[in-house]
Amino acid sequence: MNAQELIKSVTQQVLDEARQSVPGGDSWNGTFAAVNKYFVPHCDFRRTTKLAVGRSWRTATSAQQEQVFEQFEPLLVRTVTNAFEQAVLSGGDVEFPPFREGGRDTVVCTVLPGNDGQPISICYRLNQSSTDGWRIYDMSMSGVWTIQMYRQQFAETLPNSGFDALIQSLTQENQRLALTHAQRSAP
Prior knowledge:
The chain is of the alpha+beta class and 187 residues long. 59% of the residues lie in helices and 16% in strands. It has one domain: Tgt2/MlaC (Nuclear Transport Factor 2, Chain: A), CATH 3.10.450. A hairpin with a 7-residue loop joins strand 1 and strand 2 (120-129). The longest helix is centred in the last third of the chain and has 40 residues, at 146-185.
């Protein structure tokens, strides 16, 4: 299976399962569950975390690295869930622009229908490993690459405040987002 075939398959699985949860249900939680079931297993969020932190990664203890990963991964999953939820609610079909195989490291783009009628362009950077096959390690939503965006944010925190402050900031953001989704899901 090439990289685009993987993205097509995973995207369709997420949308099919998430759309089943919409009638009378909570579209975000259904989409979140589908993303975790079908999308996350094809991701290398450890690599995403390491690349987003950049050179500072080497200065963190292994415990700090693990804590950053544990707090960063849920943010990444929520970001993907938000984009997929737009497609779930719109009911439209996903488009796949022409794809050129790019060796062991490649980019696959999709266009998801947005709930507001505006398309959402998502590109995925994938790396092919001999043991794990294709793994997603970066995403671009409407032209903004995740690793680049977070690297800039982390670079503002790490030099002055260190890893403990970054971990605290990520933890607080996860708590804020969890509360937002809980309030949104409440009857």
